[in-house]
Write a structure and sequence with these properties.
The chain is an all-alpha fold and 125 residues long. It has four helices and no strands. The radius of gyration is 15 Å and the shape is elongated.
Length: 125
């Protein structure tokens, strides 16, 4: 039996993106103080925007194009987060294991978002 999805909170992609955003928040707390207004701020914003845009997409699912547009925004924010993670690794603020784990999480999230974009009829009202 399928789970009934009542709100964006019930979507697996939302749950995964929220958890990944929280993981980014926790690791970014250890970034150097000189990164507060650059890398730390950027990675936190983009990681949080993924779940935010998914929530907005869910509320706009009456309109297929608006739904897809917000999902495209979520996909872009997830990819941006991957870039900031790459910088975090290159600057040695995170180790290779943390980088690989988070990058893989975001790849999975992007895949879920792309599947929603490809099959919008399954989701729209």
């Amino acid at each position: 039996m399928k789970e009934r999805i009542i709100s964006h909170n019930d979507l697996n992609v939302f749950k995964h993106s929220f958890d990944a955003g929280m993981a980014v928040y926790h690791i970014s707390k250890s970034f150097p103080k000189e990164e507060v207004y650059s890398l730390t701020d950027q990675i936190r914003r983009s990681s949080r925007s993924v779940s935010g845009n998914i929530a907005e997409a869910w509320r706009k699912r009456r309109y297929e194009k608006a739904f897809i547009a917000k999902l495209n925004d979520a996909e872009g924010e997830a990819a941006e987060t991957q870039v900031w993670l790459k910088y975090s690794r290159a600057c040695e603020y995170i180790d290779e294991d943390v980088f690989c784990q988070l990058d893989e999480q975001y790849e999975h999230i992007i895949g879920m978002i792309v599947n929603m974009i490809i099959n919008p009829k399954k989701w729209i009202l």
